[in-house]
Amino acid sequence: LLDLDPISADPGAAGGELVLMGRGDHASPFIDASHSDCGSKIRRLKLFYFTSPDWEENKGGLLEIWDRKITGAKSILPAADRLVIMETSETSWHSLGTVMADRDLCFLTKSYFSEIGGKPRKAYTSRFSGRPGERGKRILGYAGGAIRNLFYRP
Prior knowledge:
Number of strands: 10
Oligomer: single chain
Structural class: mainly beta
Distance between the termini: 27 Å
C-alpha cells in the first residue's frame, strides 16, 4: 500500500478511541502527535472505521482531509462499515464536520506506529487550527502548538 517500515498498534492507550458525536458536535482541523505515548515509535497511519447505519450526507459529520494550508478539503461520507486509512505527518490536517442528525455518529479510530530508525523524523505534538475564515482559531492554534512543542519530548 505504502512504502512504510513494518507497523504495529501501540500497546498503550495512544492512538485508539471510540468516538460518539451528537447533534452540533464537530472537530476543527488538527494533526495528531508524531510519536507514541512512550516516545519509542513514530505514528504512521490513522484508521477511521465508521459504524452508524443509514448515514447520509445531510446528517453531517463528514471526515474532512485538508491540504497543507487548510484552504481546501476532500470530504468523506462516514457511511456504515466504511474504513478510511490516512498517512500521518506534520501536514496531515483532518477534521469532522458538524453533526446535523438527531442521533449519534459513531466510529472507531486507531493509529499505527513504526519503530524509530533510519531517517530521523521531526517530533511534534498534536496541533489544532480553524477552518478557512476562522482567523482567531488559526492564531490560537498556531500559538498553542508552538508553546506545546517547546515542552514536547517524545
